[in-house]
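#onboarding

Welcome to the new folks! Below is a worked example of what a typical request in this channel looks like: someone posts a single protein sequence, and someone else replies with the predicted structure as tokens. Don't worry about understanding the tokens yet, we'll cover that in week two.

Example request:
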Amino acid sequence: MAKRKSKLTLLLCFVFCFCSAQEQINESFLSFELAGSGGLASLNYERSFHKNDSRKFLWRTGFSLAPIDKNNGVVLVFPLMVHGVFGASKHKLDVGIGQTISISTKAAFFILLPTSIGYRLEPSDKRYYWRFAYTPIFSYLIDFQMQQWGGIAFGYRLKN
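Example response:
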């Protein structure tokens, strides 16, 4: 089990390094997600690293604060995700997986595995998108747990 976690982490690091090394990237977004992979709410930056007429792949990183309880204090949440967006029209399937790194003000450290499957409304003639997704979050380090979660995101395409 530990080898599988190490391989997944290594794969995600490789994908993020690969994404940042690409020069032909033509889309980047800022988004606000209510609930979802970043906890209660998160601010995110997305950037595409592969795109054609019917699909694109993006990496996403974000930041969130979440009050937990008096034992853990406030948690700083950093979601890191890779998303595949599929569809040629403005109606698209959005699928994602990643790692969420969380650090509490009481020195607790958590790593979670957020996933996402949902609907993305992204008109090609507009600079915005909406995403409505089922986003279960998995805890796998100490014992396996699954949190049922969902999220709504609004994103804005930046000028390149």
